[in-house]
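I hope you will forgive my troubling you with a question about protein structure. You will find the record immediately after this paragraph.
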Amino acid sequence: QLQLVESGGGLAQTGESLRLSCVASGFFLRFYSVGWFRQAPGKEREGVACISTSGITSDYADSVKGRIILSRDNAKNTVYLQLNVLKPEDTAVYYCAANEVDYCSSDASLYSHWGQGTQVTVSS
């Protein structure tokens, strides 16, 4: 089976950092571009950022630009999202998704495999 599992979410205070993990099983994540998306209560899903197969990253959400670091550990079949200087508006369920294309896209419809999401809650 093809599976993505996010972890690392939880409760954090404003200004703190979290590192989210996206672990793939059943396929090699290094052959996929990986996008991160989030959905806050009562809001539409938005693209956060993406990392290509070569490690090139793209930030999509204006609210997170300059505060995130995407990285890959191919040996662990894992992609990480480091979210720094957390703000209450970062509160959302964060999803990772894999696209069998080398390059990145903010279009969620292009991603074929999705994780179950991990909750990030930031207190003021």
In short: The chain is about 0% helix and 50% strand. The longest strand covers residues 18-25. The chain has a mean pLDDT of 96. Residues 72 and 111 are 18 Å apart (CA to CA).
